[in-house]
Amino acid sequence: MTIAVRTRPSLRFRGKSFLALVLAPEVPLRDWLEDLDEVAKRSPGFFSGRPIIADVSALKPSKSELKFFLAALKMRDIRIIGLEGAAAAVLDADMPATVNGGRQAGDIDFPDLDAVALPATPAPPPAPVTALLVEGSVRSGQSIIHTEGDVTILGSVASGAEIVAGGSIHIYGALRGRAIAGCTGQSSARIFCRKFEAELIAIDGLYKTADDLGPKFHGQPIQVNLDGDSIILTTLD
């Protein structure tokens, strides 16, 4: 009797966690889309290459309304990887897959284009566990994402580059790209840089673009922190 011996390795499944941006449209939808266009205009490329979930719970769309919304995002080159809050009856096979069970990370809200706010959840923020040190500069098109703690850049951050940290961001050179600190809900996070020329800064979901900030702090060494729902910039000695 011959016994077959399996030599091929067993099928293995692995899991990974990714940080996704959640867009939560509100009614009237056309006004919300106009605000979205204004944000994209102020920070070109902000939505490019990002995993994005659309939470349509507030819209409660019909099938035709959902198709219009998805088409409107496609026209803006915003690609949706998943839908949340849509009734099963309005979904078609060619629409993004439904998702649920993710950890709440705030809603997209554009009531005031001087500050794009993503309100933090009431859950206590996780404490930083580790720090990431980058020995050199971050080039245009590069993204450094470290959600477990602080990020320190010994060089500069070029225009078109992005730093995302769960804790604070320390930049020993110029900040010309985007710096997003406290991305996991840490409102005490700060941003420090030797030369401030940023395209966008954010702490704990509160965003400001270069147009919002004006020329007052341009080229200066600064720190950025939150005071309630306000982004505060101060010069460093």
TrEMBL record:
Example of a GO biological process term: regulation of cell septum assembly
Source superkingdom: Bacteria
Location of the Septum formation inhibitor MinC C-terminal domain: 134-233
Alphabetical keyword list: Cell cycle, Cell division, Septation
Keyword DNA repair: no
Gene3D superfamilies hit by this protein: 2.160.20.70, 3.30.70.260
Subunit structure: Interacts with MinD and FtsZ.
Function of the molecule: Cell division inhibitor that blocks the formation of polar Z ring septums. Rapidly oscillates between the poles of the cell to destabilize FtsZ filaments that have formed before they mature into polar Z rings. Prevents FtsZ polymerization.
UniProt similarity note: Belongs to the MinC family.
Protein name in UniProt: Probable septum site-determining protein MinC
Record organism: Microvirga alba
